[in-house]
Write a structure and sequence with these properties.
The protein has 4 domains: 57 residues, no CATH class; 124 residues, Chitinase A, domain 3, CATH 3.10.50; 98 residues, Roll (Chitinase A, domain 3), CATH 3.10.50.40; 205 residues, Chitinase A, domain 3. α3 crosses α15. The protein is built from 18 helices and 17 strands. The radius of gyration is 31 Å and the shape is globular. The mean pLDDT is 89. By secondary structure, it is an alpha+beta fold. InterPro entries: PPIase_dom_sf, PPIase_PpiC, PPIase_PpiC_CS, PrsA_foldase.
Length: 539
């Protein structure tokens, strides 16, 4: 009854708030015209780097403190803790692996003769759904796939395995060999960039061209991938990402790979992850329809107890001799949690109630008991407590604030430089571009306010927003863009052909009203939360 009463009160409040939000005819008319107008514009886009190197814009300690104080409300956070820890992972031993392999070896004959694969797999496998499943090489690690799809094995009636595959042993019973969708194997070198920064994109493209040149001159792809690739998972394997289907990678990557031939080296390909150079190493369309018995390679009781003894011995030594000294003497790596809250995941570790319980009860400098988890054992030392309700001004935050202040100073300097150019008598884009070799004029038609897209240039919402509010034929003052500033001239604006404005208004009005209501609700409840005394009663 109390729950229903509260829900009715909330519903009544929301209905009352809804009546306070309206869309005026002027608002609706402006939105409709912007949405269906297409703009043509010319502009010179100038990145922040044009203002000069970062060293030209020094940041003082008092500026960092002032920025921190003035933005403190944006840095609110729950109470947090930091800790150093030594981790003793539960890794199955070679003996544990051999035991699981032997278990599956003992099932080969029985599995080959059973008439009811479904019942057999349900009883014997860690994956009871593995009956009459169609597999390609992409469903296995490269090493396991090489064994499974070996021509001698890949035939109806074969029993393949046990095959080690990513922490499991798999025993497969082949019923059919069929042709499926093609899969590919490839390696790549990935360089990441900030898509909002044209300057960053240009730098990364330049670096990628250098790497491509090294490959063309005969340098090892594997060596260059290990040295340069920012995909840490594949870089250690020389860039190898194994086998994959067309739909399991982003479209641009798939198009580059599946339109190539084995042994081909693609030119740099841009995706949402960055720029890739791809080496295509193979294609395959063979599929096997199989039932399989799968067993996870788990650490045995003996392995678990061995790890527990190591963790306990270290904990006792750390209690007597100190955490850092003990870790150094035992050559054990010390990791850091970073800041974490009572109800937030810990970097690398994830959610863990036992670690949270220690961290939020201990004093700074305290050493934990041995903490047991599914992954292994942790011994931790609490290194920091923050109960202020705000993020502390630590070294990492200082670096971020410094970068933001440098960016702000560059913006001021660049805006001033461009303003002086546009303010000169008779100034035009053409005259300004002719006076500086670093400037070039971008001309674009069919610019859309709806998505911020500029054909031939990319997405830049601040720039398009500014263009949509300009008068035709007039050189603008500096306009802020995603990556710097621009000088702009709106050449023309036209209403998209065939648009019925009355019908468009009818379609847009409900969405616009809903958006205004949601914004109003968000602001209202944010204001209520700010003035309310809220107590966290979670355990």
């Amino acid at each position: 009854e109390d729950i229903v009463r509260r829900e009715l009160k909330v519903s009544k409040l929301i209905r009352a708030l809804q009546t306070m939000v309206h869309v005026s005819d002027r608002e609706l008319d402006a939105v409709v015209k912007r949405e269906y107008t297409r703009f043509s514009a010319s502009f010179i886009s100038v990145p922040l780097g044009f203002a000069g190197p970062d060293s030209k814009f020094p940041v003082k300690a008092d500026e960092i403190q002032k920025y921190y104080d003035s933005h403190k409300e944006l840095l609110k956070q729950p109470a947090s803790r930091k800790a150093d820890y030594v981790f003793f992972p539960l890794v199955p031993s070679a003996k544990d692996s051999s035991v699981v392999r032997a278990e599956l070896e003992a099932l080969r004959t029985e599995f080959s003769t059973t008439k009811n694969d479904s019942d057999y797999v349900k009883v014997q496998s860690d994956r009871p759904s593995g009956v009459d499943v169609q597999y390609s090489r992409a469903d296995f690690s490269p090493a396991a796939g090489a064994v499974v799809f070996n021509s001698a094995n890949a035939k109806p009636g074969s029993i393949i395995g046990p095959v080690a595959d990513n922490g499991y042993y798999r025993l497969l019973k082949v019923s059919k060999v069929v042709t499926g969708e093609p899969v590919a194997r490839a390696s790549h070198i990935l360089l990441q960039f900030n898509p909002a920064s044209r300057e960053d994109v240009a730098k990364v493209r330049e670096r990628m061209v250098e790497i491509y040149g090294k490959l063309q001159s005969g340098e090892s792809f594997e060596a260059l991938a290990k040295k340069y690739s920012q995909d840490s998972g594949s870089a250690v394997k020389g860039g190898d990402i194994g086998w994959f289907g067309r739909k399991s990678v982003v479209p641009e990557f798939a198009e580059a790979v599946f339109s190539s031939r084995p042994g081909a080296l693609t030119r740099p390909v841009q995706t949402k992850f960055g720029l890739h150079i791809i080496k295509v190493t193979g294609f395959d369309q063979n599929n096997l329809v199989c039932s399989e018995v799968v067993r996870m390679i788990r650490p045995s009781t003996e392995t678990v107890e061995s790890a527990r003894r190591l963790a306990t011995a270290f904990q006792m030594q750390a209690k007597d001799q100190g955490f850092e000294k003990s870790a150094a003497s035992e050559k054990l790596p010390v990791a850091k949690t970073g800041e974490f809250g009572k109800h937030t995941p810990i970097a690398v570790i994830g959610f863990n109630d036992k670690i949270n319980a220690f961290a939020f009860k201990a004093a700074e400098g305290d050493l934990s008991d041995v903490i047991e988890t599914e992954k292994g054992f942790y011994v931790m030392r609490l290194t920091g407590k923050n109960d202020t309700g705000y993020r502390l001004l630590d070294d990492d935050l200082k670096k971020r604030i410094t970068a933001e202040l440098v960016r702000e100073k560059k913006e001021v300097a660049l805006e001033k430089q461009l303003a002086s150019l546009s303010a000169k008598p008779g100034a035009t884009l053409e005259i300004i571009a002719a006076g500086n070799k670093a400037f070039s004029i971008v001309k674009a038609d069919d610019i859309r306010w709806t998505d911020g897209y500029i054909p031939g240039y990319g997405i830049d919402r601040p720039l398009v927003e500014a263009i949509s509010g300009m008068k035709s034929g007039i050189l603008s003052r500096p306009v802020k863009t995603t990556g710097g500033y621009a000088l702009v001239r709106l050449d023309k604006r036209v209403l998209a052909a065939g648009v019925d404005l009355k019908e468009a208004k009818t379609g847009i009005l409900p969405n616009l009203l809903r958006a205004k209501q949601e914004q109003f609700f968000a602001e209202y409840f944010a204001s209520v939360r700010k003035s309310a005394a809220i107590e966290d009663l979670r355990p």
